Fold this sequence. Notes:
The complex is a heterodimer of chains A (about 110) and B (about 110). With about 110 residues, chain A is mostly beta strands. Helices cover about 0% and strands about 50% of the residues of chain A. Helix content of chain B is about 0%, strand content about 55%. Chain B is built from no helices and 11 strands. Chain B is globular. The N and C termini of chain B lie far apart (about 40 Å). Classes of the chains: A mainly beta (about 110), B mainly beta (about 110). Chains A and B meet through strand 5, strand 6 and strand 10 of A and strand 5, strand 9 and strand 10 of B.
Amino acid sequence: AQSVTQPDIHITVSEGASLELRCNYSYGATPYLFWYVQSPGQGLQLLLKYFSGDTLVQGIKGFEAEFKRSQSSFNLRKPSVHWSDAAEYFCAVVASGGSYIPTFGRGTSLIVHP
Amino acid sequence: SQTIHQWPATLVQPVGSPLSLECTVEGTSNPNLYWYRQAAGRGLQLLFYSIGIDQISSEVPQNLSASRPQDRQFILSSKKLLLSDSGFYLCAWSARGRGTDTQYFGPGTRLTVL
């Protein structure tokens, strides 16, 4: 079975600084990988996803993520954080054999200081 | 375009009372449907998923149940609520077929059991 680890529970950055949120997964083959964002009191919104091909994927709101097979990682990045990016971020993995059950990480809470 | 609705948005219920949360999806057919719970400060816990009418799987044994009376309607119920049922309940859908494992989430229901 697959698993997802988000090692950082909270991350604090200053507005305008760069951001990297870590995600590590465990799965025997190449999985489908996702990043979702959740604003307080709301549902989750898809930021980006990786299925195959180019290992650097672009998402909405200026986010990008890079799939590194050798490190079993799918870290989320943004070059310049805005105060509106403060939210909870979830990494998720789905087995690539046609499964429809995702495994979510526990989430990373992003705090943005002005 | 597809939309997903949940109601009510918030709910305060006494211990031992029944529960019914409703989720409906518009703009798609034969979706996979999911119920998640998010406790304070925790990640997502998958409660139920359904790949079709009358095809519902439970991931966690508890006093909750789910039903799918129509293709695009998913209901979460309980006969007697416990304090531990408090949390943020999220409904999600995904499309059928390979490469369509992205989940789309509803706005959620905040349940407080007193």
